[in-house]
TrEMBL record:
Organism: Simiduia curdlanivorans
GO molecular function: hydrolase activity; RNA helicase activity
Gene: dbpA
InterPro entries the UniProt entry points to: DbpA/CsdA_RNA-bd_dom (IPR005580), DEAD/DEAH_box_helicase_dom (IPR011545), DEAD/DEAH_RhlB (IPR044742), DEAD_box_RNA_helicase (IPR050079), Helicase_ATP-bd (IPR014001), Helicase_C-like (IPR001650), Nucleotide-bd_a/b_plait_sf (IPR012677), P-loop_NTPase (IPR027417)
UniProt xrefs under NCBIfam families: PRK11776.1 (NF008744)
Protein name as catalogued: ATP-dependent RNA helicase DbpA
Keywords: ATP-binding, Helicase, Hydrolase, Nucleotide-binding
Amino acid sequence: MSFDSLPLAPALLSNLADIGYSQLTEIQAAALPPIIEGRDVIAQAKTGSGKTAAFGLGVLHKLQVERFRVQTLVMCPTRELADQVARELRKLARAIHNIKILTLCGGMPFGPQLGSLEHGAHIIVGTPGRIEEHVRKGTLVLEHVDTLVLDEADRMLDMGFQASLDAIVEQVPRARQTLLFSATFPDAIEALTARVMQSPLLVKVEAKHEASSIKQHFYRVAHNDQRLAAVAQVILHFGPESAVVFCNTKRETEEIAEYLRNEGMQALAIHGDLEQKQRDQVLVCFSNKSASVLVATDVAARGLDIEALDLVINYHLSRDSEVHVHRIGRTGRAGASGVAVSLLSDREDFKLEKIAELVGELPAIETLPEARRAYLPEPAMVTLQIDGGKKQKLRPGDIVGALTRNDQLAFEDIGKIQVYDQWAYVAVARNEWKKALTQLEQGKLKGRSFRVRRIKV
């Protein structure tokens, strides 16, 4: 299907053509028509399937810009996913004038959010805990919301947001459209849909991957003590530029990351106990190629915007076979090839049988491969932090200009730039980072000096 075949507003169709969206993905083709009709929809689809545009276009088509009040509420499990959703909505809404989309997430200062809310918004995107706080304090009024979106609903329940979701939904009018998106459908999701939805339509896109794009390996480990060494051995065998190791517990993420660092690898851990600034730094360094390995729990990794991932390692097989498919789907995206490795002991064979039920065949179990290299090369980039951000009116262009002034750095030596409220990060080529640090320290940004430091991985 093409987007032109849908009864969307002309401004939306024109913008979709401008940004290169022509054909609908599978989940968009299945979910968008009933969403446009105003039906409640339950959609099951993996990350990267185009689900944000599926509900985003429905929301924007329905929105009445002239009515300046909160009409749509989108809830996500993490700030990273909320930011990603808000960016996509703004991109889809570029041809709609005067639309305001506001993010409300925990881990960010409360005061600036109050100021933004006082100026009003059409769409709120945020995390349940912070949204509930604003609702409880009366700073966010939901009486005019006609569309409620629960994105990655399974992870919101996993993270303990059940009570917050219930409290928020009580404040939203019953006469509304509710859209629920989830990668998996445990019993708790069925109970939630029964409480918050009216005669919903279930749309399910099978979580599958092209055999040619993802090569799976299942390696037997004799006992748990062998797993740590096995992770390093697998990484040194495949030699990825970027790899993610999935764990079932927070404690494992720290243990594995520390072990890999002791083996000379630039590895970082991410889990729910990290403060927001720590999470930001970890994700920045991994996404901009300053770190080679990210060790993560499923909840922490949900919604991460990671491109060109070469290798996924399952430290333990997931207890849920659909989560397994979601994990390995992090690699082999957009036509690229990837490798997914799972480590398992004899006691985990029952999990393998569950995966076989989902994919249709029992995977072969191999012996651990030999390491092909003695060490993993250092990442191509180094991250510099600038103690100034959006509040100081810094933009990516200012940072590029400062680095390339007097031809000190070539444009090709500058990587990803991410600007937050109070600080900014820029990736620079590893062999140029000292020159870049001096250039930023001794130069000016927006006519003033800022403290700059290297983020050590």
